[in-house]
Amino acid sequence: MTFNFKAVTDQFVNEGTFLHADPYGEGHINDTFAVYFETKEGRKYRVILQRINHTVFVNPDGLMNNIYRVTQFLKEKIKAAGGDELRETLTVIPTVSGGLYYKDDEGSYWRMYVFVEDAITYQSIRDEQDFYNCGVSFGNFQRLLSDFPTEKLIETIANFHNTVKRFEDFKLAVGQDKAGRVKDVGPEIEFAMKREKDAGQIIKMLQTGEIPYRVTHNDTKLNNIMIDNATGKGICVIDLDTVMPGAACYDFGDSIRFGASTAAEDETDLSKVNMSLRLFEVFTSGYLSVAKEFLTEKELYSLSVGAKLMTFECGIRFLTDYLNGDTYFKIHREHQNLDRCRTQFKLVSDMEQKMDEMHKIVRRYSN
Ligand code: ADP
Ligand code: GN1
Ligand code: MG
Fold first, then answer.
1. How far is Cα 18 from Cα 7, in angstroms, rounded to an integer?
2. In a 10 Å sphere around its CB, with 0-12 CB exposed, 13-18 middle and 19+ buried, how is residue 129 labelled?
3. 275 C-alpha to center of ligand 3: Å?
4. Is the predicted pLDDT of residue 124 greater than 90, yes or no?
5. Residue 200 CB less than 6 A away from ligand 1
6. φ, ψ dihedrals at 210, nearest 5°
7. Which domains does the chain have, with CATH numbers?
8. In this structure, are residues 243 and 153 in contact, taking their beta carbons and an 8 Å threshold?
9. What is the mean pLDDT of the chain?
């Protein structure tokens, strides 16, 4: 990828002169860069520049409005609590014409954020305390947004965590066999088909009103939270593209899926991949230390179910993308989406074995 970064960054309000831009982070969706500047006084600083994946996010304008509204809302609460609004939530850097993003001549959409310094995102936890702190942060994120007017948010990806719809997409991909890979993934297809009836577990609870819609993040993996270098605490929840109305257990579940796994999302040695009950407990205790105040009985029950379902959903999404020829998730090697699918399915099997224990742990930290 070579872009004229100077031309793009000139479109945003920044102090000083452009130095250079480097690819940054390990997200699967957007193209992320750190852009370096130097001020007249010789101070160097950087910002985050992202090219929004507008195949995935078909309404970048609505998306950026969501992010602006949510971050402004969070900033008011952070200020009221005496916090640092430039570090504790994302800050959109406007364009020179006052917009929230810049669309270039090739139709790419660019946005810029203040760089949250002295904090880092992790691909896997360093120690249990990190994961506890993530639980607290995601619990707080839901708490702070509990009185956000949801009607102001657009759905940035329709049916994002509608697992029934995800399952239909998966069956369609099997039927179409666009990349000619169905023949190679018989066991994975069988694994998924056996669990088709599970797909409706959470969406049905939402649709019947058994559990409420809340403003949720919907993509709570570990690398979407910045951990403060000084305190080790979660300082800033990032990647707000999928903030939309959803179920509390989507956020809880996706955190467990990624963070409570004993191996990387694309580990090829499945004997290393398990859902650690210890890590499950650590996250649950952090999350519920905040969220037990507002979750209903039914929502508490939904947490462990959601953990399994978010993992299953992610597995079928990776498999669907593999069958479609790797068009959605970025890959860095051949078959990476299949490897990702396999780790998720291994975690699902493990969670099925551990489900009673998971419910018990949730109950233990609910009182
Ligand atoms: P994706 O949707 O592709 O996952 P993210 O918004 O999560 O993109 O950004 C990718 C990575 O860039 C993050 O995991 C994080 O390491 C880094 N990052 C994103 N925003 C910031 C920020 N404001 N300050 C510092 N690092 C950031
Ligand atoms: C994507 O954007 P990123 O890398 O944080 C995906 C999530 C998946 C995740 C799997 C918008 O997250 O839904 O759970 O990959 N985001 C989108 O690692 O599809
Ligand atoms: Mg991300």
1. 10
2. middle
3. 21
4. no
5. no
6. -65, -35
7. 5-117 (3.30.200.20), 128-366 (3.90.1200.10)
8. yes
9. 96
